[in-house]
Amino acid sequence: MSSFTQATAANSLQCVHISRRDRIAVVEISNPPVNALSSPVKQALADAIDSAVNSSEIAAIVLTGAGKHFCGGADIREFGQVTGPSLSTLCTQIENSTKPVIAAIKGSCLGGGLELALAAHFRIAVAPAQLGLPEVNLGLMPGAGGTQRLPRLVGAARALDMMVSGRSVKASVAVQIGLIDRVCSDDVLQDAAVQFANEIIQSGQCVRRSRDALAMSDTDQSRVEIDQAKDIALAKKGLVSPAKIVEAVQASLELPFEKGLIKERELFSECLESPQRSALIHAFLAEKAASKMPGLSVVLPTPLRTIAVIGAGTMGVGISIALLDAGYAVLLLDREQAYLERGLNAIAESYRKQQERNRISAEVKAERLARLACHIDYSALHGADLIIEAVFEDMAVKKELLCQLEKACKPDAILATNTSYLNIDEMSEGLDHPERVIGIHFFSPANLMKLVEVVVPEKADQRTVAIAFQLAKSMKKTPVRAGMCDGFIGNRMLAVYREAAELMMLDGASPYQIDEAVREFGFPMGPFQVVDLAGGDISWATRKRKASQRDPRLRYVSVADKLCERGWFGQKTGIGYYLYDKDGKNARPNPELEDVLSEVRAEAGIVPKHFTQQTIIDHYLAAMINEGANVVHQGIALRPSDVDVTLLNGYGFPRYKGGPMWYADSVGLERVLANIARYAETDPLFWKPSDLLVELANHGRSFSDLNR
Ligand code: 3H9
Question: Which residues line ligand 1 (CB under 6 A)?
């Protein structure tokens, strides 16, 4: 080891590797899995840069990452703790280096990782590398100079777009917009970076600081673009950090660099303190935890190639598109040629629209469609590694189908059902291999919605569960493990909080008031809008089917039935809770609804009460949280954070509020329980507090305690 590397290795804590290539120091962040900038990493980097700058043996520094990624950013688990040298100071140290620093980028270069690279004097990246400032997704903004350096390099409008959307750009785009200098091939990154460094030394060129870059030319066009980007940021309803990003970029346009950095620091601290930041980081970590089923890491799932989808209806079509997008060969089966053709047309139409909107090229569209084969004959199933049935939601139909599928498929194929509430143990009764049956519950539209409930029946073996998780992850979905009960995690909870909304309507709140309160809270739609969108006849059919199982002691709200009896099914009939134009748009209150409400309330002997927006939300959330607690207590969800992931990704719960269980912790479980106790005074059957909620609240504990 040379004297330079000896000196620095003594100071580093193995999380930064230092080596030498002649006069070039190669400083490599080594903090798996994503090289996050934890306190020890920052300290070791500061030491390494310092030594290199002060060593007479070194003429330039290459800064890179070990493993797959350059760097995934600041260590998000450290926020709120004392964290050693600040990232901002480290970036300033790099930028002030008198010797050229070249960032050599691969994999992800995100957040604080890109800020390090922006502070370097030159940047080279492999073609697939992704560069971005996604802090907004965590309720934050760049806080180590990113808001000041990026606009100077790529222009304020583009910088705003990147920071407000959180989208990253590939190296091929980054080089075009001036974010990086060169693109090289994957296997030669370090060699190419060292060569780049030698060229810089030989050319006599020294440092080139991003703070001095001049991308921000003040043309009319750039002002229009900046204004447009600001409007987009400020339209992000409910979120704190986009407006702060706008302010910081404005500072980069108006203030000298140093003052801009101070402004950025102030704004970053405000984001850091915001409850949205902790809720969004909770959501991020909860999704990572949900996709890791305990015990599954030991199982090695067989690679999947061909997947069959049974049923060419809306769900089958959505699932097929999602599978084609993920690179699988898809066999789509239906019993009628006409249904198959309709399904095939729907898939082709979806890809045609994507091409029209420039989301995919003609070649990509052709390649995806070429992987799709349609059949009416089950003998085609022999080639499938996994089969997903998405037929009519009926136990007898599905049982019969699974028997046929088991006979037709190859011996180790997995049979998955997309049922949204049926008992899968019952469904697989009589099969020779129930251990190969699992629920993979997609949400509509299946090609867009992130959530997948992996519903694990009693007899499913570990391989089957592992394959279901592997499939969901390969489709870039967010899988959550669910146990067996009516509706699993999400639909079971939905039934309860929807009922809470109906009870409030019975007791005096108007559906419009409830929808508005729910939207104000941050859901994209209120519960009555959702019924109108889905079609009132769908839930009517379910209610009729389940009528015999209804507890006669529970209050029953017959408003929805009365609407359906009048043929008011919502958007599809132009009338439901709302009135609609022929195209299903321009929703407005249905003036005749008040008569129906008065009739139902009179029948039930209700004197309408006044509900405020807050009391509506308190009821709605209390019902959701209480049922979430039941779901956890009964082992249907593994942890409270899995309930959050389900509601965030499948039911429109506002992400910046972290999910119902996180929200419950933030308002306090005692308060939630006190609300439920108060509601129970008039309706003790519906408002029965969950044992788990009672236990946690009485012991001063939180749902988060159970996630750990
Ligand atoms: C920031 O930088 C603020 C600065 O501007 C200012 C500071 C002053 N920290 O996703 P994976 C964990 S804010 C700590 O499966 P992949 C993750 O939880 C940050 N841990 O890997 C998981 O842990 P576990 C801005 C992190 O290869 C493991 O790494 N940056 C961080 O599929 C593997 O994760 C971001 O928002 C982190 N920053 O994808 C980027 N990132 O194994 C967030 C990940 O215990 N990260 N972990 O479950 C990502 O988007 C992806 O992780 C990434 C890798 C694309 C990097």
Answer: 33-34, 36, 69, 72-77, 87, 108, 110-112, 115, 134-135, 138, 140, 142-144, 146, 285, 288
